[in-house]
Amino acid sequence: MTELLDKRLIARLERLQLGTRRRLAGGLTGDHRSPRHGTSLDFADYREYTPGDDLRRIDQFAFARLDKLLLKLFEAEDDVTVRILIDTSASMQGDKLQRAKQLAAAVGFVSLTRRDVVTVHSFPSQSRSPRLLGRSAIGQLFDILERLEAGGESPFASAVTQLLSQPGPPGITIVLSDLLTIEWEQGVRRLPARRGDLAVVQILDRGDIYPDITGDLELVDAESGARVEVSLSAQVVEDYSQMATSWIDEVASRVRSAGGGYARVFTDEALEDVLLSAWRTEGVLR
Known about the structure:
By secondary structure, this protein is an alpha/beta fold. Helices cover 35% and strands 28% of the residues. The longest helix is centred in the last third of the chain and has 24 residues, at 234-257.
């Protein structure tokens, strides 16, 4: 079906669905619990009968006990709008963008098989896919992801602002980025404004945190092209790794304090382990 996901993993994903920490309402009938009441078999609550209500929903046992006409209300099951925001800036070139595509493919596949609406957004190009819905759109989703290319700087905050300005229900927003930009905190603060569920997946190479280099070097910023000469001793590299680790912890703390889920993914981790273990811990998949 696609080179992004192998057949064995796709078969396992068939048994999963997106998890939400809140009950969300959509516009179509789907596989997620809704705050609206409907006609499924899961009892939700009672309300008093009013003229015109379906008499078949009156609880006769409650009437016998309480001498009141009470209607049974049941859970509705609705679709959820899933917005996938992918960082395609130059710092995501190579394995990081490939991993972002794989994760987006997995999330999108699960969503579409559960009849949720999926849109894919990328920055810095500010591109947006059409609304994708149902199994028939899976091939289109994979085609969109496979065409993504990395390049340019990372306007994370403005990309978030544009995403929030687009109409639609709260749903779920999933961010796939290395967050290697000074705008990361500003963007994370803005994301909860849509008031839906939020998951931030930070995708990193091991070398971003644990560089295996020493000596006199000239470092080049992948996005701006800026150059800086540095002298890296083993102690400097160790100090950098400690600061980088503290920064990752700070990112996770800021996302969670904003009510979102956070997962850190290294590009050398097995994709199946990331999807079926780490993400379940954060409630992105279940």
